[in-house]
Amino acid sequence: MKIAILSRNKKLYSTRRLIEAATERGHEVAVLDVLRCYMNITSMRPSIHFRGEDMVGFDAVIPRIGASVTFYGTAVLRQFEMIGVYPVNESVAISRSRDKLRSLQLLARKGIGLPVTGFAHSPDDVDDLIKMVGGAPLVIKLLEGTQGIGVVLAETQKAAESVIEAFMGLKANILVQEYIREAGGADIRCFIIGDKVVASMKRQAQAGEFRSNLHRGGSASLIKITPEERSTAVRAARSMGLNVAGVDLLRSNHGPVVMEVNSSPGLQGIESASGKDVAGMIIEFIERSARPHRTQTRGKG
To answer: Which of 31, 140, 254, 282 is the most exposed place for a label (fewest CB within 10 A)?
Structure first.
């Protein structure tokens, strides 16, 4: 098979592992910087060019699109879908998962456990918004934030009011969520391929920090998840339409709650913690699933 990986840096751990796993299985791999791809959008013969060459003959594409280039990256991926290349994750599914508000509404529609979440536009509604999520302490999140950036824990009512009003004053879109104190600064990353959790790890925040992201100094360790956590993670990925996903859960007093569904989950932490060849499992999934023009959404939003 001929596989394209949409990645801006072939030296990144996740990209390197996917290249290794694919080449070990005899596949041809090309890494394409998504921002250097350009398109001819036409009904008759849509095409994608990269560094002056027409990108034809690919059987599958693995999108590793960074959050900052989601708009352009998903446009390129749509073009691959138009010419019949099998996408591991479809453009529509990635767009859903990258929109924090939309993804939470989709999860809620499916009855999947979530932290109580509030969203408002006017500063006049801040008091009621805070009450809606159970009062302080609470978590305030920028809709555009990634890897824990733009996430604030407000421990008192006054602090919550000040932070929310400051963000609103900057015209930033924010979510306000209940703080799951019992999670103790830890979350669970479940790695989904197809309809299965293939690996999971516990991420623990460092002392004095409530964000467990590995980029923020959190540590990763192997964990055994419950059947309920497994089912919640699989349903969350399915609700986005993602074949490969990292689903972040918290253990709350009312069961597992989903914090985020990640469409380009990193491989380093999960492979190190679990000892599993997750990159190889992704390539095996492609071998089983890739067919020309095989997309689920067919252009639906």
So the answer is: 254
